[in-house]
Predict the 3D structure of the following.
Amino acid sequence: MRAINIFRLLAGSGAVGGLLLTAPAVHADAVGPAQAVAVPCSETALVNAVDEANAAGGGDLVLAPFCTYILTGAHSTGGSGGPAGLPNITTPITMTGLATEITRASYAPSFRIIEVDGPSQFPLAHGQLTLGTVTISNGDAALGVGGGIANLGGSVTITAGAVRGSHASYGGGIYTDTALTMTASSVTGNAASVNGGGIYRNAGTITLLASNVAGNTPNNCAATAPSTAPC
């Protein structure tokens, strides 16, 4: 797992934000430090940044403050029941924002926002997604799983973020079968056509610290037996 710099994840001032562009990030699985990469406020810039981070074996992406990245099409065929708006996360990638949102355009075809792939599902993948102060919204996996985020064998850590307004068959907001950790975050206003409107745990662990999972349809949390719902 990557080390998480709390100042980067919870940055709230211009002074700290300026440091994000040059401060090295530590990777537990990397040979040396990686420079954070500033990502301009555009769909193309974000897609390219994720592709480049995957190709480099991981990366730290500093998203534009107060930006809404609007995804107009899918940039991955996906690995479980449908496409994803961003390229699949197959390496350790951090996305740090400040009141930043990644959303599917209202007129776009159906696709989830993010898929994280790990070795239990995809043997060559080592996806580890860390989101700081980023909102994921309006994903639609249709008959697939994880409308906002589908964690398929990797790990997802969200701090001071949100997943809202998304839809899937299972896990309207988030579907996970490995490790999900949320701190000071929320999962609200999501819907599932079958189960787990907010979060669906197929397997693995879920840790919710000072986080709110509420107002999801038909329920906030669900799980595949013998797992128990996390909330």
Observations:
- The longest helix spans residues 43-55.
- The chain has a mean pLDDT of 87.
